[in-house]
Amino acid sequence: MAVNVSILRTRRRPKGSPMLASRLRAVLATIALTASVTVAPQTASAAPTPSTPDAGRQAAVTDPARVLGDDWKSSSDVLVTGSGDTDGFHLYIAREKDAFAWSRLATLNGGRTEAGAWTGYVCLTGSGRYAAVVYAPVIATNKPDQVSAGAHAAVVDVRTGVARQVAHDVQLSYFNPGCGPDDRVLLTRAIGRDQQQTDLLTVDAVAGKVLTTRRVQAQLTNPAPGPGGDYGVIRGEVVRVAKNGRPTVVARPGGQPYGLRATADAALDLVTLKSEGGVERSAAYRHRAGGLTHLGTSPGKQLELFGLAEGRNALVGDVTGIAVGAARDLQLLSSSRPAQGVSRQGHLVVQGMSVEQTRERMAGRRAAAGVLRVTVESPVSGETRSGTVRSERRAPADVARPTFTGPTAAALLDDLPPITDPGDPKCAIGRNDLFTQVLQPSANQVEWAVDRAANGVLTIDRSIPGTGGTYKPQVMFKKPTNAPNVPAQLMLAILAQETNLAQASWHAVPGDAGNPLISDYYGHRAHEEDIRIIDYSSADCGYGISQVTDGMARGQTTYNSFQQQAIAMDYQANIAAGMAILQAKWLEVAQTQSMVNNGNPAFIENWYLAVWGYNSGVYQNTGGPYGVGWFNNPANPQYKANRDPFLRVDKDDASHPADWSYPEKIMGWAEVPQWQWIDPLTKYLTPAFGAGSNNQLQLPGRYQFCGTVNYCTPNVASPCPSDNSNCWWHGTTSWSDGCAAKCARERLAYSLSSSEPPLLRVYPTACTPFKADIGTVAAVIDDTNGDSSLNRLGCAPQPRGGKFTLRTGSPFGSYAALHGQVDLHQVGAGYLGHTWFTHSYDGDSGGSEEFKRHRVLGTWTTDLPSDDYEIVVHLPSHGANEQVDYIISQGDGGAGGSDHQIVCSIDQNSANWEDKWVSLGWTWLYPGAKVQLDNIVAGAEGTVDVAYDAIAFVNVPGYANGRDCGDPYPGN
Q1: Signal sequence: where (predicted)?
Q2: 747 burial via Cβ count (<10 Å: 0-12, 13-18, 19+)
Q3: pLDDT for 441 beyond 80
Q4: pTM for the full model?
């Protein structure tokens, strides 16, 4: 059939205009649309108005001559650091010659946009040319195996922004990666349940590849490459690691080391945490030629060690009491707050980085998605500045660079397996199923449900749409026999840490329906978060707000199929199931004859061991070691020795949660409630703090769970030298006043007899039927084909005509269709409360891997008689951001003649956070006419949303001078 094409274009979005690009590829399998507001990544509370002066645009220093010094313009100093949000882990660069204005250098996320917020660690190699990055989704910090060996590593060229993936399955910890005075990088991978072995990977940053991997028969931390060899810390001692992985002790400093770096002249600098008279302080040392010199002790414990240019190092913090002595190349930089980074020449110290969460409003006002608030201090003047950085801004490149958002290099495409049948999904409840839409609750509903569940009265009648069955959450998921009630704030803290109080996909905001929230439906995590690979066998079937995992795979019998549906689709059922799991852990701990303080379960602090077991398991007495494992022991050197209690001092703690054990994080969220960064701004209640507690939880010390039972000696460099199950702990212990008066109890926000509070929607629903201002509505083709039983937002059914189809992958009908569904999502936005969305991809070549694996084609086909029609498309308030081409095929009436095509280019972002109808223009249509939209856009990077919503056809006979392509359609 001959095809003629006419092109109509609207004005393209100006470069630099806001775009949502909700990026997080959760887990499931059929069709979808992304809610452009994401549930807030884990931030603890509203950032207070900065007391420091504001910086300029992109956090630039507004008065650089006074703050930085007169020679700032000619300086070559540069800062490279990183921070994560729901788009990925961003690398930022700031140069002193630009007054330290920040720009985004690269974004790393493996292409996975439904993983929630991202976190990571960065170091700069000795030449300053390369940044080594270890990064992972924040949700990975809740899983011991992912923390030990589940993060990804990349090397980013600082001059060009080009990133190269160098390793996967590496350790997510404050000391990883390790950089030194040259361009070698060391990475660690913890091996074994108790981290009793370590793989030490040597990376050539210039070549962008791993050179060697050595197996060290011990738990090694703080890797440090140097000209004299490769170093690390084992059992509190500084060691040199031979080529065969055998360690040799070179220094025995006092206290617990938490910083180690080599210098260009083969010296080692290190910082340790020492306890003197019950007070912990940071001590600094220089090791050279076999001798260890104590350089002094800081008055506090926030002394940090960073690398500088020319193979030098810097001690940053309260440097009172530190004297460099013979270590003349060691620079001392004073900082009024704990330092998170320092520029190459030490002219700027980063003191804080926090993501300002999206606060999208019903009226369509969009605030700071992709905005980072930074606080910096100049050691030259001692002045502090605070400002914001927009992640959309790219750094000016010395050479042209591609954008990197994962393993996208052409060479990696050759390594992809061929598209074959991936088999059957492992997880029990699928995704992109129109009959499995999950309503996202608002924070007030979650707190109400937890208040009731904590007291055993979450027994309201519930039902799963489409099943016809009813249940009561805490009847379906009963409290284990003899189990105590869980304090409400403790359960809320677990939900905050696990999912940010979300039951549905990260794409769905309160009031939206969406796919179930599933940890890793396709098994991407085992393949560097690469969404082009489906590996169902590696899937993690953690569902919903409390991430219920055991029993949620196909064939598992812990729950029947109806219970599995309830866990996946109903936040109340999921809370009840998650609480029952936590209560079972309390009983398991009790079976080991273990208890903390007075054992009263009414006190939040007394759940410390149960929370420990909830995350990493409880091992019963079978004749050998038993109790709770080493991974979550606060004495584990996996966690930074000089850390403060989670969130108590710095709300930015939530951006690097791997610095704390799981129980520490939960106690932090119980003490400092999580804000929901969407209108209305809310947070759950703080607990009822005990008398004399200073409104704080009573927390155990780092060595609280060290004793003869687990061969662990408190307050020494090597608290548990066994590095195996001998480090498991059981027994009884107390801290503070043993919960006689100071411990915290729950505080209820809702009466136990109150009914479920109203859902606080972020966006209003678009339930109003389409109305024609001129002519007659001939058909409205919705993206669900008008099936009213599929509506989850309460919209009344409307007449429909025609048919909507969605096809994925290329060629259609092949196994590639399953791959195309990976980045396809449904969300309760748009006309009548449902739309599909995906992301735009570059696929100029129809044979490209991006085209094959990511193409999504939507088709709206009419069954209308020949006549003049105006075609009108609905743009949802959120989840649509790309400039796309709607292709109108006029049809041929079945006569085999010419099927003329008209292309109307629409900026979906023009909806401006409101539901809108936009005209595609007027034309004559024959029977069989259709409109098509796909997500293949030249130059696209897989980051911008493309939505598939309703299309209306209005009969307008003789209407030849009407609206043009892209004109707003009034009256709706």
Answers
A1: 1-46
A2: middle
A3: yes
A4: 0.89
